[in-house]
Each structure stands twice: as structure tokens, then as C-alpha cells.
Amino acid sequence: MAKMDFAGTLEEVVTREEFPLEKAREVLKDEVVAVLGYGVQGPAQALNMRDNGIKVIVGVNPGGRSWQKALEDGWVPGETLFSIEEAALRGTVVQYLVSDAAQKLTWDRVVECLKPGDALYFSHGFSVVYKDQTGVIPPEYVDVVLVAPKGSGTSVRANFLAGSGINSSFAVFQDYTGRARERTLALGIAIGSGYLFETTFEHEVFSDLTGERGVLMGALAGIMEAQYQVLREHGHTPSEAFNETVEELTQSLIRLVAQNGMDWMYANCSTTAQRGALDWRHEFRKATLPVFERLYESVASGEETRIVLEANSAPDYKEKLEAELREMRESELWRAGAQVRALRPENWKK
Q: Would you tell me how many other CB atoms lie within 10 Å of the CB of residue 56?
């Protein structure tokens, strides 16, 4: 494996060059990969593996939206599309990709279908790490592994089709067969990972829950709302406030960061922007550090898991979720965003 030195911390990563698709196909040649769930990660991982020549079947509850989506994607009932239980019985690798809340609800149905030597695969450490709340305790006669793409299912599929792949973490929780690590790496390459870096189930879920609630989504939305509000309160128009808060970030600056790093982006901005940003970044770090520490503790203690499972199991969850999303969508900030996006050149009417 390639060794990467991060300021004295040595990490090993697995690249496509070191573990090519041909090797993954060889490792998985006698496996039947059963993808349970066809919501967020399921379609992307299943389609990518199918395109890569892996034997894949899909398991969902018949008749629902996921079943219909699977039909539209070319999965054939009785051949490659089955109920959750039938797919789990037929698979030698069972990819448990239903939602975290659904894993708690369906586990008793799935565990009965696992056979000695099967690999039980997750893309999130949630259910296994918080077993006291989910009840998901894998039997001792299966490999228990994880490949967690660092992006949404939409990105996993889009990057695969573009030929770029997406980075993923991987972990082995239980090695019953002695082949768990090799199977995991093969599956990671087969779903289209650009490269794989090793973690543990616990580290994956702690970092994932912190990241989603923090910089990736929660903090990003909250900071945008705060800056937009201040600009509007001081008389700036919605267009100006949105452009300075969201549009310039998403359409220009973040792309520079992605390509070359934060320091390069700073070096290629105006000297006025450089000085102010370098100074104020310390203020924002000091202001948010206690919030991130409190967030991490809430994740590690299982409190965030309790909130998620309780909310997602409520009968009116979808209605409440839509109300929250509607409030965001109909706020002035994001109504301004819809109008600004419509003015991008690629959206101009021909």
C-alpha cells in the first residue's frame, strides 16, 4: 500500500494501481453481492459494481418506490431483484445499505438469512457501534466489513461515470474467513473508489456524524444564514448578500481550494482579501471550537444516535422533515439563491 506522511502521521492508502479492478474481479469471482436497500448509497454502489462486471442482486421491499426505481434501473424480478430476505439468502456478500433507522427495524429479518462465511458489509459504522440502541449484533460466523464513500450516492455514481471515482474509508470489524480484508478492498474498488484509507467502525461513525452536523452541512448552512442576515440587516440587496455568501464560494473559491489547497486560494486572491481572511479565520476558529467539542461529545456519547432513531421512527417524520426543508427552501436566502442560479450562463435560454 502507498504510504502517506501527514506532518509526522504515517498513513497507508490503497490505490487503484495497487489493487486494480482486475484483481477485485478475481477476488469476487465466486461471490454474489446482495445490495439491500435502494435509496441513497444502494443504487450507486449496485450499478457501479454491475458495470464493473461483479455479480450483483438487489433486495428491497416489493411494490414500494425503491422497487420501482430498481425496475427502472434494469434490475429484473426473480433474476437480479428480490425481497430483502431472498436477496440476503442468495448473497455471499450482504451489503446492508438500508437507512440507519431501517437497519434497526429490519435486522431480525436479515440476520436469520446470514450463512457461515458470508460477508456482512456496511457503508456506515452506525448500527454496529451503537448496538445497544440498534440491536444490530452480527453473528460470529460472518466477516463484518465496511466501505464508506466520502460522498453521497449521487456523487459516487456521477464520479464513476466520469471516470474519477470517489475516496472511501474501509474497515474490518470481524474476520471470520481470514479473507475479510481482501474482500473489503475488492468491494471498495468494485464500487468505484478512487482510493481507500483505513479506519475503524467507531472512528468512521464518529467522524461522519461530526462532519455532517459540522462543516459539511450543519455549520455551513448556519454560517451562511448568519452572514446573509447581517448583510441584509445593513441594507444589502438579496442578490448582493447571496452572491457574497454563497455564489462566490460555491462557483469560484471552493473550486480553487479543491484543486490546490487553502493556501493557494489565499495566494491567488486580492491582498485585501488575504489579510482579512488570515486574521478573521482565527476568530471563527475560536468561536466555533467549543461548539465542535460539544458536538463530538454528543456523537461519542450516543446522544445523536438516540435523537436520530427517535426522530426517524416517528410516524410523522416525513411530514415534519418536509416542513423543515420547506422553511429553508422558502427563506429569503434560498429564494434569492434560486433566482441567482437561474441567471448562471448555463441556465440561459437558448
A: 26
**Residue 270 marked ligand-binding:** yes
Which residues in the chain land under pLDDT 50?
Answer: 350
C-alpha cell at 112: 436469520
Q: Are residues 24 and 161 in the same domain?
A: yes
Instruction: Give me the residues paired with residue 9 across strands.
Output: 6
Whether 244 has a binding-site annotation, put simply, is yes
Q: Which amino acid is at 309?
A: L
pLDDT at 194: 86
Full domain range(s) for residue 181: 2-200
The pLDDT value given to residue 3: 64
Question: What is the count of structural domains for the chain?
Answer: 2
pTM tops 0.70, yes or no = yes
Which letter does DSSP use for residue 77 in this model? B
Helix (H) or strand (E) holding 265: helix 262-267
Q: Are residues 156 and 299 both part of a single domain? A: no
Strand 166-174 to 81-82 pairing: unpaired
> Does 248 appear as a known binding residue?
yes
Measured in Å, how far apart are the chain's first and last C-alpha atoms? 50
- 230 within domain boundaries: yes
Look at residues 97, 94, 107, 109 and name the one whose alpha carbon lies nearest to residue 34: 94
- Based on the fold, state whether residues 7 and 151 are members of the same structural domain: yes
Q: What is the CATH number of the domain that holds 322?
A: 1.10.1040.10
What is residue 2's predicted lDDT score, i.e. its pLDDT? 64
Q: 282 an active-site residue?
A: no
- Answer yes or no: is 86 a known binding residue: no
Q: Which one of 200, 232, 257 terminates a domain?
A: 200
